[in-house]
Amino acid sequence: MMSIRLNLIADLKSFPQKSHNQYNLDKTVDRNNYFDLMKRVNLLKKEDFESEEKYKYFLNFIKQPQNQADRYVFEINFTENHLEIHLFLWMVSYVSRLTDWLK
C-alpha cells in the first residue's frame, strides 16, 4: 500500500516544475491535476505509511488550520485554469511543503 503514497509523492514532486513551465507558457495552471492530487492526498490511509506515527505526523500537517485555509483559498480562486501569480506561487510552495511532509 505504500506504493500509493510513493506514487503520489512522485506526482507532487513533479507538479511545481510542470506548473511553472505551463504558467510561463500561457499563464494557466492545470486545475484538474491540482484537484486530482488533493483528492489523492485526502484518500491516504494509515496503511499507506510505514508507521502510525508517520501517518499522524502527516495528518497533523493537513489538518492545521492555516493549511486548510490555504487549500480553500486556492480552490475558490481558480477561474477555469487561471490563478493569479501570487496565488500560483503560494500554491506551488504549499504543494512542495506537502510533499516534504509525506516523505
Q: How would you summarize the topology of this molecule?
A:
Elements: H1 2-26, H2 31-42, H3 52-63, H4 65-77, H5 85-102
Describe the structure.
Helix content is 78%, strand content 0%. By secondary structure, the protein is an all-alpha fold. The model has no long low-confidence stretch (mean pLDDT 93).
Shape: globular
Task: Give the CA-CA distance, first to last residue.
Answer: 14 Å
List the total number of helices.
5
Summarize the helix and strand pattern as letters: HHHHH
Over all CA atoms, what is the radius of gyration?
14 Å
* Helix/strand class: mainly alpha
Beta-strand segment tally: 0
Q: Detail the poorly predicted runs.
A: none
Please give a quick description of this structure.
This protein has 103 residues and is an all-alpha fold.
Please name the defining characteristics of this protein.
single chain; 103 residues; mainly alpha; globular
